[in-house]
Amino acid sequence: MPDGREDLEPEHRPEAVKERLSRPAQANSIPDAILGGIDGCVTTFAVVSGAFGAGFSPTVALVLGFANLLADGFSMAVSNYEASQAQQEHIDSVTRREYRHIQLIPEGEREEIRQIFRAKGFEGELLESVVDTLTDDRDIWVDTMLKEEHSLQPVGLNPLRAALTTFFAFIIVGAMPLLPYALPGLDAATQFLASLLIAGAMFFGIGMLKSLVYHRPMLRSGFRTLLMGGAAAGLAFLSGHLAHALFGLG
User: Fold this and answer.
1) Which pTM does this prediction carry?
2) What is the per-residue pLDDT across 152-198, written as a single tens digit (0 to 9) for each?
C-alpha cells in the first residue's frame, strides 16, 4: 500500500528545499476569511431569526440585516486591523529591545543563546560553534531571540490585508441569508426557511473549506461549524420570540 513517500520526495530534494525556504514569508489570509465568513453569516442570520421569532415583517428583517451586516463587518475589520497592528507593534518593540540588549550586554545575550540551544541538546564544542555562528550576525541573532525566547514570528503580518479579507468575507457570506428577503412574492415563513437553508449551507461549506485547507476530516468540520452557527441562530430566535411574548413587539 503506498505511503505517499513518492509524492513527498520531489519537494524535499536539496534544490527544492532551498528554493522553498528562500521565499519571503507571506501573510496567511485564510484564518481571517474563515473568521469573517462565519461571523458574517452568524450575524445576519441571527438578525433574521430574531426578527422572525419576534414576528417582525420581512422588510424589517431585511433592513436590520443589511444595517448589521455593514456596521458589524466594518467593526470586525477594524478590530482585526487593530489586533494585527498591536501584534506588529509588540514585535517591533521586542526587536528594538533585543538590539539594545545586544549592544549593552552582549555576553548576557550570548548566554541566553547558549542556554536555549543547550536545552535543545547541544553540548561542548558544537554548542559553542552554534553560539558563535548565530551571534556573528546581529540580525540573525535578534531573529533567533524573537523566535526562541519570545515565541514571536517577526514576518508575515499584514494588518491592512487582514482587515480587508475579514470585511469582504463578512459582507459576501453574511449577505447570503438575506437574499430570500430581497425576492418578492414569498411569504415570511418561506423566506425564513430559505434563509435557514442558505445559512446552513454557508456554515457547512465554510467548515468543509477549512478542513480542506488544514487537512482535517471534512464532514466533522462541516457539521461542527454548522452546529456552532445554528446555536447562535437558535439563541437569536428564542430571544426574539421571548421579546415578542413579553413586550408584544412585532
Assistant:
1) 0.75
2) 987 777 889 999 999 999 999 999 999 999 888 888 889 989 998 99
Name the grid cell of 211: 478542513
Three cell numbers at 160?
Answer: 491592512
Give the three-class secondary structure for 66: helix
Q: Which set of grid coordinates corresponds to residue 38?
A: 462565519
Give Cβ neighbours of residue 201 (< 8 Å, ≥ 6 apart): none
Amino acid (1-letter code) at residue 134: L
Which grid cell sits at 206?
Answer: 465554510
- Neighbouring C-beta atoms of residue 17, cutoff 10 Å: 11
Q: What Rg do the C-alpha atoms of the chain give, in angstroms?
A: 26
Q: Both ends of the chain: CA-CA distance in Å?
A: 64
Contact call for residues 250 and 56 (beta carbons, < 8 A): yes
For cell 454548522, the residue is: 226
* Residue whose C-alpha cell reads 420581512 in the numeric block: 58
